[in-house]
Amino acid sequence: MKKSRELLQWHPAFYAGIQIELAGEREHLSFENEHHLGTRPKQIDVLIIKKDGDYQVQKNIGRIFRGHNIVEYKSPADSLNIDDFYMVYAYACFYKADSYPADFIEMEDITITFVCHAWPRKLIRYLKEVRHYQIRQEDAGIYHVLGDHIPIQILVTRQLSLRENIWLSHLTDQIGSEAEAERLVEEYQAHTEDKLYQSVMDIIVRANREQFEEAKEMCEALRELFADELEKARQESQREGWCEGQREGRKEGRKEGRKEGRREGMAAINKMNLKLSELGRTEDILKAARDPEFQEQLLKEFHL
Predict the structure, then answer these.
(1) Residue 103, by phi and psi: left (phi above 0), alpha (psi -120 to 50) or beta?
(2) Domains of the chain by range and CATH?
(3) Concatenated DSSP letters for 106-170?
(4) Between 46 and which of 6, 71, 124, 144 could a Cys-Cys bridge form, CB atoms 3.0 to 4.6 Å apart?
(5) Can you point out the beta strands (E) in the chain?
(6) Does this UniProt record's set of keywords contain Coiled coil (predicted)?
(7) What is the per-residue pLDDT for 35?
(8) pLDDT at position 163 over 80
């Protein structure tokens, strides 16, 4: 069965997901979504700043972090290419140069993290063969790029640990089994009131709708979890239907009004022409047909 192409907003879910992944150390970190660079239309997907510069992040995806950490995220529908690498590298340089006072942020205190769904084969080959970097795997799905002044890592979400990085690893439209979906639901049940978890779970369910719908028990569990949301959606649909009905009613009303107005207007003109004919004023009938203002005067004359 072919999937329907639905426009999915992956970035808000990723922003929520990376906060979940680093939730155990949130007190040491601050997060900014779509951090703008200066006044020009350039923005970093996620900027993570350590509140305490001496703190060492323990989570596997954040062990590379220094004081200021730039994260570029590519959704499952996007690929990470060579131009993306240079663009984000330029962002890092611009971010450093945009600080105040001068050299307030040291280049040695910046890191770059690329997050993508699939292995960026062409980019990796380029980094090795052209830039002469070394690529070293630090953990499942976590690759450090060695040989640059700026610490760089690439996170391949489809390779991340399903245990250590459950949310980022499942931020995909390719959940492979009912067991994976069941585990996500179990994890979500403990955090149903948390908006970050709601954001991630919502996009995962919508991106993998067919997989969830194939399992009867899973659908029942989701209906229970999202009971409030479903009821809200039902009420919203009812409101939208009522509003649409009102709009259609007004539209039909206007249409009928125009028809009725035309009928009344024609009837008035016919009565006027009959009176003019009875009075022998046939020239006025012809003149009224050519001159709307004169026609209006005649209608008023005959109180029509």
Answers:
(1) left
(2) 10-172 (3.40.1350), 231-301 (no CATH)
(3) -GGGEEEEEEESS--HHHHHHHHHTS--EEEEEETTEEEEESSSS-EEEEEGGGS-TTTTHHHHT
(4) 71
(5) 29-36, 43-50, 68-73, 110-116, 134-139, 142-146, 152-156
(6) yes
(7) 82
(8) yes
User: With contact defined as beta carbons under 8 Å apart, do 149 and 138 qualify?
Assistant: no
Residues 48-74 pLDDT 10s: 999 998 899 999 999 999 999 999 999
**Whole-number pLDDT of residue 257:** 64
Which of 6, 4, 22 is CA-nearest to residue 14? 22
Find all residues with CB under 8 Å of 210, minimum gap 6, and list them. 1, 3
Q: Indicate the residue type of 269.
A: I
Question: Residue 150 above 90 pLDDT?
Answer: yes
Tokens 């703190």: give the residue: 55
Which tokens is 83 given? 């131009």
The pair of structure tokens assigned to 299 is: 């209608």
Of 22, 8, 9, 207, nearest to 113 (Cα)?
A: 22
CA atoms of 68 and 96, how far apart (whole Å): 9
Instruction: Report the candidate in 1, 20, 8, 34 with the shortest Cα–Cα distance to residue 172.
Output: 8
Dmax (CA) for the chain in angstroms is 106
Record the tokens describing residue 136, joined without a space: 């070293």
DSSP 8-class letter at 27? G
User: To 5 degrees, how large is the angle CA 68–CA 43–CA 94?
Assistant: 60
Q: Indicate the residue type of 174.
A: Q
Instruction: Provide the angle, in degrees to the nearest 10, between the axes of the packed helices 178-189 and 195-207.
Output: 160
